[in-house]
Structure formats: C-alpha cells, structure tokens
Amino acid sequence: MIPKPGAGGPAVRIVQRPPAGTPLLCVFAEEGRPPRGRGGAALERAFGDTGGRLGETGIVYNPGGSPTRMMVAGLGDGGPGAARHAAGAAARRAAEIGVQEIAIVPPPGAAAEAVEGAMLALYRFDRFRAEKKKVPRRITVVARDSEAAGARGAALAAGGVRLARDIANTPPNECAPADLASAAKKLSGPRLRCTVLGPAELSRRGFGGMMAVGGGSRNGPRLIILEYMGGPRGARPAALVGKAVTFDTGGISLKPRERMEEMKFDKCGGCAVLGALSAAALMRVKANVVGIIPSVENMPGGGAYRPGDIVTLYGGRTAEIINTDAEGRLILADALAYAREKYSPEYMLDFATLTGACIVALGSDVAGLFSNDDRLAARVEAASARSGEDVWRLPVGDRYERLIRSEVADSRNMGIGTAAGAISAAEFLRMAAGSTPWAHVDIAGTAWMQQASRKRPYNPGGATGFGVRLALEMLRQ
User: Fold this and answer.
1) Fewest 10 Å CB contacts: which of 6, 281, 385, 417?
2) Would you state the torsion angle of the CA atoms of residues 146, 150, 155, 157, taken in this order, to the nearest 10 degrees?
3) Are 84 and 113 in contact (CB under 8 A)?
C-alpha cells in the first residue's frame, strides 16, 4: 500500500526579515562577487571557500551570536535555474551538518526557484529503511511582498513533485494498478474529483489496449480519471494524460535482466499527472483540467497478449502487435481517444516513459517533445524554459506514418527495425489524438536519475518527478 501522498515534507514559511535565533542563515553570491550586507566580514570568509561557484557552499560559525552559522551558496553566473541549484546545494549542506531549520535569503526575483530547490533537495525515500536520515524540518524564505505569492505557489508545486516521487519510488509489490488508484482517491476532495474504472468496465467499454497489456498479470488494469474545474464554467478543459505501467517486464517479449528493477519507474508519467493535478487543486489554478491515467502491469502469463495478436483499441482502431514491450503506446492510445471523445479538450498533453530510443537521441537530461500543433508545442517549450524541465522538439507527421503501417491492421505497435524509434512511437499516439491539439513528452531519460544523468542537488536520486512543474506552468499560463 502507498502511504498518505506527499506526507513528511519540510514546512515552508515566507517572511520579510531573517528570523532571530535561526541556526543557519544562507545568502547567495555570484562567482567573483562577494555578498554584501549583514555579517559582511563573516560572509566574506564563507565566500572565500566557494568563490561563488555554482552549487558550492561555505559556512562560518558565529558562537553566541544570531544566527549561529552563516552560509554562502554559489550562483555561478546567476543564469536561469541557478537559484534552484544553489538553494538545493544549501539545503543538502544543512542536512549534512544536522540543523533542523535553514533560513535562506534568495537573490531578487528568485524566491520561487529557491523554494523549489530547497524543498526538492531535502526529499528522501526512506519508508523501507530502519535508519532514516534527518533533514531540516523547516525552510524559512526571506522574500519581499511582491515575491511571497510566487514563493508559496512554488512550495505547493514542489509538494506535487514530492508526491510524484513518493509514488514513483514505491516498489511494484506495494504499487499495483489498484494501489495507484487508491492513492489517487486519497487526493480527491471538494476541488478534485476522482473516478476509477476497473477491468470489467474497461472491457465493456472497449479499452482493448489496456486489457491486452494487463492480461498477463493477476493485478488487473485501472483507468484513473481526475477532474479539476477551476476555470470558467463550460470552458473546455486541458487534458493531462500519463502512462502508468506499475511494472514492465516486457511481457512475452521479455526484457533483459540487467536493470529490470528500474522498470518500477515506468509509471512516472502517471505519477507526474497525479502530482500536477494535486498541486493545481491546492493552488486553485484558474483552469479546467482533466487527468487521465491508464495503469497496468505488463507481465508474461497465461492471459498475456502475444506478438502477432491484433488488438482493437478504444474507438475502434486496430493494432498489430509486433513486440509486447511496446505496450505504453497501446494504453496511451486508449486514454487519448477516450479523453478526446469524453471531454473535447482544448489540448491534450501526455507524459510517458515511452522509448529507450529517446534516451539514445537526447540523453538523460532532456525529454523529447512531439506535437501535431506548432502553437501548442511553443507553449510547452515556454513552460519548459520557465520550469527548468528541459525538452527538445522532434518531428512527427505523415512522413513517418509508413513506419507503423500494417498489412493486416490499421497500424502496428512497433516501427521498422531501429529507425526513428521515439518518432514512430509518437506517430502511433498522433493517430489516436486525431485533430485535437496534442503534445507528447517522452520522459524515458528524465523520469529518474540514471547513470548518464546530470547531477543536480535538487534531484537526490530515484524518481525526479519530471513533468509536474512543466505541466503546472502550462496550466498557469
């Protein structure tokens, strides 16, 4: 079972002046530019240990004084994301020295970034450890009035990321599709409605992709539907769709044994949608949003689907199965077609750990972006720049349709050999989206920390929660 979502994070308070008696006060400095103001001589000594280099921290002690310790966190050149990185480094250093509270004085205009960095850096997934590492219980942010609201919003957004990480990190024996649905129901309230469709209902309604992929597991599939209506009555909603394969063995097309334990992270797209909708409701975002999360477990078994099968997806489109490890596009096609038919959304945005080919193309720090609508793609790119969750657009369109053309069905669930693997998967989804503006974010490389991932203080290991902050920026535009 999954514990209460999002529990256990540090408290955040926003003040205008550094509080008296704080055990650790952190200020920020760009490279080569020592900080000025209160504690000048002490801060210059701390700055000397770092020179303002990005992510480096220096501490000086002030016995009998207030604060008892002062820290300088380096901003490097102070570019986009620097405050998030530096605040994450400062929070981790605070945890190392064992203080229970850290007060941070972010540079002007960077309070929200600093809140995100500190809260996310202090994340720990230690539910199954007897020995738990202590982290600061409170983050105090010194910010002017004009930045207070943004800082509070950032704290809620970071809470959504922590929620996504909590569920994504939960092991597969504790997080079957039914458990994920239960976690979603715990989020429901006056502003967030949750509906769950089980196997019988999915079969009756024609969700052929989900039923096929989930057929080999004793843990039946679930379709999780979240509705948040914070915008004008009657306005078309945005639809966020997230792939949630709670464990992916590959099915009959069994994966290699190396690093198969990481396939618990194949639910990260759905977790991102849960985190984003939870935070949007708490933030009272002025938008109508639906979240659609198809959740299955892809296992070999007597009921498993096979290469050579022809599956009828939601809406009637048929797919020839070439490889049962290309399962994500099948369940997403069901979800996208359902969202399009049920809600007539303004746009659909999906997040999915879809293809290893995207990692080959872009590495582990940038997600792939695909879209049938240039204006929507530009909005996603702008939200990416503001959130610091990087995407890079790749092509999709009629020229790639031939890669998934089948002689015996409407399409096939795998491209031709290794050619354009991430693109052919996106093309399969594009066909499900129809004429509705749609964007797909392939987070296979960015959803959790991998061997090639760039080390960031605010991504301490395991699931990153990638997509939550980007989605929230989309909804707040």
Assistant:
1) 417
2) 180
3) yes
Helix (H) or strand (E) holding 355: none
Which amino acid does the sequence have at 372?
Answer: N
Category of 52 on φ-ψ map: left (φ > 0), alpha (ψ -120 to 50) or beta: left
- Residue 231's Cβ-count burial label (10 Å; 0-12, 13-18, 19+) is middle
- For 197, 307, 334, the CA distances from 178, given in Å and listed in that order, are 10, 27, 18
Number of alpha carbons in the 13 Å side-chain half-sphere of residue 327: 37
| Bridging pattern class, strands 222-229 and 238-242 | unpaired
The residue with tokens 């007897």 is 130
Catalytic one of 255, 386, 393, 476: 255
The whole-angstrom separation of Cα 85 and Cα 25 is: 17
Residues 443, 353 contacting (CB under 8 angstroms):
yes
Helices (H), 214-327: 268-283
Q: How many helices, marked H, and strands, marked E, lie in the chain?
A: 13, 18
Q: Is 255 a catalytic residue?
A: yes
- Of 396, 232, 414, nearest to 311 by C-alpha is 414
Single-letter residue type at 212: A
Residue 203: φ, ψ to 5°: -65, -45
Residues 6 or more apart in contact with residue 124 via CB below 8 angstroms:
132, 133, 135, 460
Name the strand (E) or helix (H) holding 154: helix 145-169
Token readout for 125 is: 């997934």
> What confidence tens digit (pLDDT) does each residue in 320-368 have?
999 999 999 999 999 999 999 999 999 999 999 999 999 999 999 999 9
User: Which among 222, 243, 264, 329 is annotated as catalytic?
Assistant: 329
Nearest to 369, CA basis, from 435, 344, 354: 354
421-477 per-position pLDDT tens digit: 999 999 999 999 999 999 999 999 999 999 999 999 999 999 999 999 999 999 998
- Alpha carbon 39 to its chain centroid, in Å, reads 39
Q: Please give the domain boundaries of the chain with CATH numbers for all domains.
A: 11-145 (3.40.220.10), 170-476 (3.40.630.10)
What is the identity of the amino acid at 95? A
Across 240-250, b (16+ Cβ under 10 Å) vs e yields bbbbbbbbbbb
Report the phi/psi class of residue 464: left, alpha or beta, with left for phi > 0 and alpha for psi in -120 to 50: alpha
CB 51 within 8 A of CB 32: yes
